[in-house]
Hints:
Helix content is 2%, strand content 41%. Strands 3-2-1-24 form a 4-stranded antiparallel sheet, with no helix packed on it. Strands 4-5-6-7 form a 4-stranded antiparallel sheet, with no helix packed on it. A 4-stranded antiparallel sheet has the order 8-9-10-11, with no helix packed on it. The protein is mostly beta strands. The protein has a single domain (3-14, 41-318), classed as Neuraminidase.
Amino acid sequence: MLAGQALAACGGSGTSGSSSLPALPSQTTASESAAASPSSTPLPAPIIADALAFVQVANNLGDVFSGHADGTELVQLAANAGDMERPAWSPDGSLIAYGAGSTSEFADLGLLIMDADWSENKPLTTGAVRGALPAWSPDGTRIAFVRDLLRPEEHLAIYLMNSDGSGMKRVTRGTDDLYPTWVPNDKTLFLRGGDVFAVNPDGSDLERVTKSADVGAYAVSPDGRRLVLSQTISDPFGLRLVMMPASGRGTPEVLLDSLPESITGSAAALCWSPDGRHIAFANSDSGCPPGSDLYIINSDGSGLSQVPNVGPAWDPAWQPK
């Protein structure tokens, strides 16, 4: 639903870096035999019971919920009269940062933080400083996020701040930079113009990781070694899930060659289980109509399942252990 996000996920403009890294495959890979396709047969429920946070959607707006990955013990954590997106767990699983606002526009969204049991809920950004798409550093001391600069020549940039909202500083200087994520070596990954880039927290050593211009969203594995990508395909038009090394070097592998029909829009939001064995996915909040069923797949591409008891949802996030 975020206008800038949907534009960038469809291949918005950005700075293209030079790289010898391999391009993602446009249609086929050597590992297609391992890929799965959704069918009309009802999917089984997951058998894992780890906790997930996600945004459940009603009337085109979302509220933050948590529950077990098998669809049990669903609890509403946060609600307001506006829009919510991208819940992000702190590394110790005790806090959740998320974006919220009275509309779905980036310029209107602000960042908030709450205890995992919602015993306390407070803003991280206030006044003219807005923010969206939060991501915690591995040590839990900093949060990367996206800020709309509201300028004709540059719009969405990656910023960092301390986990209490202090010490804010700008990291990237592209036109539409999205989905910041940390990796264990303290690099920050982000999406620009349909490709994943890596940068140091001080903005130095910018590197292009993928070279395909068709990545709508991505997630990095807990050990920092793998990326799972939501990749657009044109024949037939839709989305698929692809795995590749986080370095960008190596042969990409198709995990799911077409996503279930309830996943719409230009991206699927992705998250890894803490042990790296499973991947949950649902609509990104750029979907239209918003929300989808919530799915889980094994990280080798097998065992596609659907989380029961969850209505239209977006932006799943797995609680760390």
